[in-house]
Amino acid sequence: xxxxxxxxxxxxxxxxxxxxxxxxxxxxxxxxxxxxxxxxxxxxxxxxxxxxxxxxxxxxxxxxxxxxxxxxxxxxxxxxxxxxxxxxxxxxxxxxxxxxxxxxxxxxxxxxxxxxxxxxxxxxxxxxxxxxxxxxxxxxxxxxxxxxxxxxxxxxxxxxxxxxxxxxxxxxxxxxxxxxxxxxxxxxxxxxxxxxxxxxxxxxxxxxxxxxxxxxxxxxxxxxxxxxxxxxxxxxxxxxxxx
Length: 243
Fold this sequence. Notes:
By secondary structure, the protein is an alpha/beta fold. α2 packs across α6 (179-201). The chain has nine helices and eleven strands. It has helices at residues 14-20, 25-31, 66-72, 96-104, 119-125, 179-201, 206-209, 212-218, 226-242; strands at residues 43-44, 51-60, 79-85, 92-94, 109-116, 128-134, 146-147, 151-153, 156-158, 163-167, 170-174. Helix content is 36%, strand content 23%.
């Protein structure tokens, strides 16, 4: 497998990426029309952490972390390293030593479509990480790959310089051209949710706020008292015995 290391790709504006960190993954995905989410199997190794940054992408051979070493040189302040492999792999491609080098360069975290190890050390040093698996299985450094090329994880294409937002709920990808607009849409969505939250605290029901009573009626859903429901069930059971 040959490859390429692309230097200095275009990136989302840092101030827009920083603004994105003010919103949760669920909010941002909803603001983009329920798009951009990586699958639910990529989970954080820590809790209560949210980070946003620009993607440095890695395409590696399974069980081989050579290209992660190459990618460290391409990482800088505000980046998030995003790693996948050419076929499924759960080996521990990433650990505490990589995190030490990346943290020194101002990298905010890592997203791995592979395995990770040294999770306790990562938590203790405050380096944020999301991965598909946790595995102590070691790797080799023997096969070429690519850095800063478009990659795909769970059907989502991630380009170098796209914005990555990750928290306890998962990971969402925001194309670099859409970050500013997504921040605006996320802000509007949060304002709407704040109004709804206040209404719920005041006792309003979602059935009324969202006009769902008519929806239930249109779908043929009936309201019955317990007595009416019991009588209907007994009648239905009696008819069934008679047949």
